[in-house]
User: What shape does this take?
Amino acid sequence: MKSPLQIGLFGFGTVGQGLYDVLRRTPGLQSEIKRICVKDHTKQRPIDASAFTYSASDIIEDPDVDVVVELIDDADAAYEIVRASMKYGKAVVTANKRMVSTRLPELLELQRQTGCPLLYEASTCGSIPIIRNLEEYYDNDLLSGITGIVNGTTNFILTHLTRRGADGGYESALREAAARGFAESDPTLDVEAYDAAFKTVILTAHAFGAIIDVNSVVRRGITAIAPFDVRVAASMGSVVKLLSRVVIRDGGVSAVAIPTFVPEGNALASISHEVNGVRLDAAFSEAQLMVGKGAGGGPTASAVLSDISALRYGYRYEYRKLKGSEVPTLNNHVDVVAYVRGARSIIEAIPWKQRRIDVRSTDGDYIIGTVELSSLRESTAFDDAETFVALVLED
Amino acid sequence: MKSPLQIGLFGFGTVGQGLYDVLRRTPGLQSEIKRICVKDHTKQRPIDASAFTYSASDIIEDPDVDVVVELIDDADAAYEIVRASMKYGKAVVTANKRMVSTRLPELLELQRQTGCPLLYEASTCGSIPIIRNLEEYYDNDLLSGITGIVNGTTNFILTHLTRRGADGGYESALREAAARGFAESDPTLDVEAYDAAFKTVILTAHAFGAIIDVNSVVRRGITAIAPFDVRVAASMGSVVKLLSRVVIRDGGVSAVAIPTFVPEGNALASISHEVNGVRLDAAFSEAQLMVGKGAGGGPTASAVLSDISALRYGYRYEYRKLKGSEVPTLNNHVDVVAYVRGARSIIEAIPWKQRRIDVRSTDGDYIIGTVELSSLRESTAFDDAETFVALVLED
Assistant: This one.
């Protein structure tokens, strides 16, 4: 591509502004933002009005723009921007995990049809270059599992709950996260683990070459957690983390985004507050861990920047694993160890294969035992707002 | 390259045997070892004698061999194998950090002349894909420093010393490392930080595009450490780690492989035993951490395997940073904070710019203060076998 690279930017929130600043301050990157498309005509902005447009076509149809960087919230609108840009022959960089995870088949087809590269490192674990590493470094024949803390908001809340113990509980921890800027005004996507599920879909595709629907990720949020659950985990030498986890077993792949008791000896247990971390389990290399800031303007902008740099060198995702001969299919009919705390009738109704612990107490009843993941998901307990469901990590 | 890839292997130690096993058990890798060159005619080996040759040319001159994997100890012999193989048009994968770090200019020229790729991910931090990440992901305009625990032997010894405290001291910890298989019969390369210095050279090249001589790395080993030093570090809320550290300051790059007081809040402080970890400091992404097994048959073999896979996709190091317009030059004339414990006359003779702490005690005298790195290196203290020298990490 030519130098300097001309960028058309959609969205001018924290990430967009961060990107704008660094590109101006770092001439070595040889990239400049030619124009920025925003929605709100009335908003005061820190740079000159001439940099902005309110019409997408001013960017998409501008022959001088080499790369479109899409940083807006709305997944459907984002998809339209990406689609139109690629049809016009632009390379695209996006941070939109919802859009990428729910439109993956269309995005693959678009890349094939147009020949334009689409990069989205910033969509998953912010500054951690996990997609690039899965694409380029970890051969799926050797990789057996990927387990990550991929959502900073819930990790902040859970860290707060764990360290502060009983005082205040979930609601207080959520307020603290919001006060510190780690929770959106509507935190549903985060606390109900939709965000983690989106990222799980993206990780599954790049780790194992399997395209799975976001609804097939076994997803459960953290809203039902009580200080009691945190204490039970602690009594077992574990901490509660919301994990995104994709594991190969018997040629199939199971995918969850769910609260999990993580033993304190596991490196993921010590990843705290808004930090993200991903553990890769591979034959021979043993566990590998990558840790970094998973959200926020700077870390996300840094991932976007790396994608822009990569475009300059002709980089694109090859999706080799998708084309492999032995792509695993989704199989959630695998046994897991689960902790379920709630009303006696509800936790009893789970089709446990084996109960290890069954506790009745004034603080709450709970059962820890083995159950098939898909049966657990179909149980009443799994959708009940008062019941807390977690998996128990044993490796 | 064709399938299956035909590999000619030099060396059949732990790593070579691990590689042989995994390639046989994983047909999806589509690579097979055609022949193995070893030195010792008399040694009993676990596989059929027909797989072996004692003549390098049987591999190098075999037109069917696509890739030469070099896994021998001797750096000079390794270089001759690599050179001859590349001249014969072979792609080469090596794990030999001494060879790579001391022959980097020649190896660059060989790649240029022959057009053959040379990959050496296994040379630095074993299973951690640090070279590939530095090459592909971290633009040097944004990277400001790289700090790592890159030697498992010394990290095991230092962890043992820290956790066990005073009992036994360095010698006892070294014996424990040897007993657990984490120290060579001659541990000099590890404990005197030569190994870390080799890796520092490789990291410097791929992080910042600067080719530095291994002798210009400010290198100091851990043999002079006493339990007293570990206690002083602990009193400051730190642990002692042997760090490899390359930092950009004022357009220059300083490079050390030296014991360092690492604050307990720093993620590197909790990387224990034989595990390796690398922290990358970059604008916007904030600190990134990669953790994994840095040595041993499996982890090293996994890095070799990833290199072999990458060759299949036409991957090669582009060394873009070397060709950049603003390659930093070596500059060790930077101020550091150092801890030096030893005889009064020796520690007094260091040209301190500022002394923060000056302690006289029956256990030992020490000074903590600011000093220019190059002056520290030239001081008598730095080479004195009884004096313990460490840097104090402040970020």
Summary: Chain B touches chain A through 48 residues (CB under 8 Å). Chain B has a mean pLDDT of 93.
